[in-house]
Design goal:
By secondary structure, the chain is mostly helical. Helix content is about 75%, strand content about 0%. It has a domain of about 170 residues: MetI-like (MetI-like fold).
Length: about 280
């Protein structure tokens, strides 16, 4: 019993050390968001030296940070909803509909998971330019739906739908439901765990994206939060680190709260998609 207790204590101690390593950078950011710019690079402390809550007011005065926050919310919400609708339909099609070339199309879909955005960003830029969507939020909404994140969501839905008994669909057909009616009224409601997981992952991806806004937007009014965080500079072009820390804290807290509430669903989706 004593050896078991010591082993348990050692495990808890190890977890505390590992957790501290992960938590400290966030705590350092939170502390320095309340310091002056000069104090950011001073001796690290566990509590702020200046307690400048005015930093959180200043970030909205230096640049249109509220507009950038709203842009990120718009992109993330629309991109997430579109991601779920399109990927659920495609996942259901690959799981249940049999048509010539379906296996080839599914393999092509999986290749999108292996193709980083850096590979297609240039042709995608010229495509959006030709369509008249340059310097707008449209490309930022388009990519989470039809890019690699959309392919991953479609893969998760496909893996879930293949495990659903065929008897459910046969009963729906006997009741007169079409293929789309079966999908909408039967399959989609029972896929709520996958919907929740896919929505969280898509929202995180759209919220944190940096390269796409950098390429597709040029006016400051269309910046999203990742670009906005890189734009806190003084009159000499030097970064205002304390304001960057405050702005980063504001941008990180909402997504952290969402993830902490739904992290179990994210983990379940990742595990189940690989096993089924």
């Amino acid at each position: 019993m004593k050896a078991k207790a010591l082993n348990r204590a050692a495990q808890i101690l190890m977890l505390i050390v590992v957790a501290a390593l992960f938590v400290y950078p966030f705590w350092w950011m939170l502390v320095n968001s309340l310091n002056t710019a000069a104090q950011v690079f001073g001796k690290p402390t566990l509590l702020p030296r200046a307690w400048l809550w005015s930093n959180y007011v200043e970030i909205f005065k230096v640049q249109p940070f509220a507009r950038h926050l709203m842009n990120s919310i718009i992109v993330a919400l629309i991109g997430t909803v579109g991601n779920i609708l399109v990927s659920a339909l495609s996942g259901y099609g690959f799981a249940r509909l049999r048509f010539p070339g379906s296996n080839v199309l599914f393999i092509l879909l999986l290749t999108a998971l292996m193709m980083p955005i850096e590979v297609i960003i240039v042709p995608l830029f010229f495509q959006m330019l030709q369509w008249g969507f340059s310097d707008s939020l449209v490309p930022l909404v388009f990519i989470p739906i039809f890019g690699a994140q959309g392919a991953f969501s479609a893969f998760m839905f496909r893996q879930f739908f293949v495990t659903v008994p065929l008897e459910l669909e046969e009963a729906a057909k006997l009741d007169g439901l079409s293929a789309f009616g079966t999908f909408w009224h039967i399959m989609l409601p029972i896929a709520k765990p996958v919907i929740a997981s896919g929505a969280i992952l898509a929202f995180l991806a759209a919220w944190n994206t940096y390269l796409e806004p950098l390429v597709f937007t040029s006016s400051i009014e269309n910046f999203t939060l990742p670009l906005s965080l890189n734009n806190f500079n003084d009159s000499y072009g030097e970064p205002q680190w304390n304001l960057q820390m405050a702005a980063t804290t504001v941008s990180v807290l909402p997504i952290m709260i969402v993830y902490l509430f739904f992290q179990e669903k994210v983990t379940d989706a990742m595990v189940n998609s690989g096993l089924k």
